[in-house]
Amino acid sequence: MSEHASRSTVRLVPDVAGGTTLGVSRAALLALIAVFAGATLVGVEVSLQTQAVVYLFGMVAMNLPHGGFEHFNNLRRRTTEFQLRYVGLYLGSIAAFVALLFLAPVAGLALAISVAVAKGGHGGLHVMDATYGTDHLQTNRQRALAALVRGGAVMAVPIFFFPETFHTFSAIMVDIFEPGGLTAVSPYFDTTRWLIGAGYGALVVAHLGLGYLRSSGTGSYAADLFETLLLVAYFAVVPVVVAVGLYFPLWYSARQVARTTAVDDDTAEESNGEGLLAVLDSNDTRLVALGAWGVLIAGSIATFGLAALLWALSSRPLGGATLPIGLVAFWSIFISIIALPHVVIGSWYDRDRGIWYVP
Q1: Where are the alpha helices (DSSP H) in 44-162?
Q2: What's the rounded mean pLDDT across residues 73-85?
Q3: Domain coordinates of the chain in residue numbers?
Q4: pLDDT (tens digit, 9 = 90+) per residue, 282-321?
Q5: Distance between CA 231 and CA 143 in Å, rounded?
Q6: Residues of 30-53 as b/e, b for ≥16 C-beta within 10 angstroms?
Q7: Helix, strand, coil content of the chain in percent (nearest 5)
Q8: In the chain, is it the N or the C terminus that has fewer CB atoms within a 10 Å radius of its CB?
Q9: What are the Cα distances from residue 293, in Å, to 70, 227, 284, 296?
């Protein structure tokens, strides 16, 4: 076998730093595809109530702690001035998003969908940078296309393959802020679905075709090809509520762990042992343990405090739906609200060492 062919072979567990975690994420999606494809073949249908429970378990119990860790790890060893500015911008963007949802909930829903695409796409792009490489992505436009395709799988594919469920939950999310607010655009949903499906399909072909032409045999293109098609298959086969609920803990978060593993720990730092989290760099293990406990408690109070505030401000926090379906809609909106600054402030603003940092 030639060197080119050998290096281009896709392995379930890539031979790179963080490869084991990448392998776990790939295996998890393959297993879910097999389970739900099999269920479809034998005529077994998972109820929406059951899907909602799976979603809540995945997004709240499994994935939420990782989001907090990303910010916590990013803010360590940063100056107090930077930390305060970071938190201020974070809270300001949350307030702006909440205001948009109350003033124009349909636009707010569109922004929420865009946030999910940006988070999945750009987060995934940085995982590629840190692990098996992106030498087949040779321009900024090509990198943007790759991010759009990877992130777009999270929303565009379910919109096409599970239109009724997607529309139902979209309507409930809008109803949290304006009952019946999606009615005006609902008649266009079927047309939009086909346009999104065709447009996304064209982007996938462009991304994979251009990547093939610019591949150099290092294996990065083969890995990208495999994972892109895996994501498309996953969101096409697994029911959308389960797919989204398990995608973030089993794919997004797991792969960010792989990125962290691959990144050298000896990175450039703004400060050493300074800032509001300086206690975590103390030589006294008791202080470190106490500080870590305090950060965990403060983060939990802040997160669920914001959720409680949104609940109190909304006249119909469940959007008129029953438990647990209403909770899925509420949590989807809430997690989008805190995900906006997660992307914009945590990564795009903090270009020196953001949450998706790769040296």
Answers
A1: 48-56, 64-75, 80-103, 105-130, 140-161
A2: 87
A3: 15-349
A4: 777 887 778 778 877 888 898 999 999 999 999 899 999 9
A5: 17
A6: eebbeebeeeeeeeeebebeebbb
A7: 75, 0, 25
A8: N
A9: 16, 37, 14, 5
